User: Fold this.
Amino acid sequence: MIAYLEGKLLDRDEERILILAGQVGYEVLLPAFVMKTLEGKERGAEVAFYIYFHQTERQPKPVLIGFNLEAEKEFFQYFISVEAIGPLKAVKSLTIPIREVARAIEQKDVDKLSSLKGIGHRTAQKIIATLEGKVGKFALIRKDEEMPETGPEDFTQPVYHVLVNQLGHKPADAKEMIVQALGRNRGIKTPEELFNEVYRSEADQ
Assistant:
């Protein structure tokens, strides 16, 4: 089973992308709120996703569904436990961030849930009846911050990959560390300068 993919962005359309990982191209479905985080990324950019792998007797062709955070994937598994919401319908319906969906469930906001694509009033009531009291922690998912535009040679990427792949930071935390470092020192132009600024911030805490 595939649980995580990291590689180069080869292609994308409205609902799916193609990732080159280990010389193999993987087609990955992305909910709209995840796809939005790819805005500004060109073909060949490095991307990484936690994967929900779906395959059943009725759906023998494997389907890969991608998320930026492991918590988003966990919420998705709760969401598809609701009667009449399968993985493919869930992908299409999640047009807003998970934290907003979870908050609507805990607040019994039927109108908010009914605004999701393909989710009517009755299904919204089923979602609340099934998940209320179970998904509060997902409302605490940190609001994602967009990476700043850094020009054609993005020196943030090497720093990001070292923080995540070598130093063990979570992707969202690594992104925030970089955003904050660049916010403190807008004169940074190289990975080395960025590493130093990130280190100074962590040393001061």
User: Anything to note?
Assistant: The beta strands are 4-12, 16-21, 24-29, 46-54, 63-67.
